[in-house]
Fold:
Amino acid sequence: MAIYSFSPFGYDGSLVNVEVDLRRGIPAVDIVGLADGFVRESRERVRSAIINSGFEFPAERVLISLSPADLKKEGPDFELAIALAILAEKNGTVSEKVLVMGGLCQDGTAQSVRGISAALQTAVENGIKYAIVPYSMNADYPEGIKVARIGTLKEAFEHLLSLEGFTEHSESHDSGIEFASIPEDNLDTIGGLDGLKYAMAVAVSGRHNLLAYGAPGCGKTLTLQHMPELLPKLTKDEIPTVNRIYSLTGLSGMDCVVNHTRPFRMPHQTATIEGMCGGGASVKAGEISLAHNGVLFLDEAAEFRSSVLQMLRVPVESGRITLCRAGRSTTFPAEFQLVMAANPCPCGNYGVKDRMCLCSARSIEQYWKKFGGPLLDRIAIRYDMNNPLQAENMTLERMRSMVKGAWEIQLARQGKLNGQLSIVEADKFVRLDDGARETFSRIGDLSARAVANVMKVAQTLLDIKNANSLFLQDKVSSQEVKESLALFGKLPVEL
Structure:
């Protein structure tokens, strides 16, 4: 018999072998294997759960071993596994390796714990073919393992002995581009702001980072909060990673797990570095990892701590973050789209017609200095609400059509979206005609990263046009480059 549980740590975690030995001696329960106070307290809950489920608790001395011995075990994750290991040792054995995850109430009811999706994925990787988990598990389970969902300890023991009643992964997900149903309060209820809606649609069409800045009350936050309506659902390949992150964080009931919508995270301005990048004793995911395959929206971005904003520079480009704690390290995926909204100055009136700005030049400089050049260099679309782009009839249906068409073209061409291309990949996949090359030759004050961003946005604009045109254009023209420069917030008059 081999019963396994799971100890979460960072993005990885480890399987824990739960072994029980019944021996002669004064009745007692001993737990070895670097168990913390929570695990040691579970002895009494396990005893009560076994008795209240109609079983007899062993009168012998019970030794419970949790291995590997050098791995610290925390929380109530092992209670169901310990109870089943005791019952199996006393009343029968099983021949297969079985993963068991869940807590226990004193009446024998099983409770869900964090990390179940991650545990199932790890079990598949280690050749375990059976798993017993509580009914309350929300996420899908992976292929390659048979799962029994149970409500009580008694049900779990029946499944364990017979190895019957387990179901395999059967739900299939279309890998195509699908959208969630349209809510009643959607983008179409917002009048005007077609320029910002267009910029937002272009940003989503290529997963480009976006900054919108303008006076308070101009509608930038209201509009950007509707960005999830433009995000296609997670694909079949993206679902396991998102499920794992949210499972390890204890957020398996979120809509992105249950309905496979893309994450949309909107942390408060008081967020710390640890809250954004992750950390803690068991190294839980931060906001940037919770936004993996989705959007991280920073409203009033200039009010975030400068250190928090600067921390975003590496993961926004690399798509991952490595955390080191107590001699161990773990790497979380963090492939997110960064979206920010900010005022043009501390008072919000700088550059606004018919309003007076009361900020000094130095205070405005310090205000924007919090972003820093390197972070702003990674923002491909910078939309000025005071100088809106000319766009018309930007309905939700039209914007979704733009996103769907552009995504289909990009995924077929390069297997990823334009905003995810590196500088080298941008040179490979973005083809410029002679007019576009001449336009770029007349721009002399942009960094290599900024030039790559302009090229990638120009390619996205071309993909949107090709998706809705019978006459395909295979190279980026000067028109797309100029429009990309306008979205970038830098369009010299001579161009």
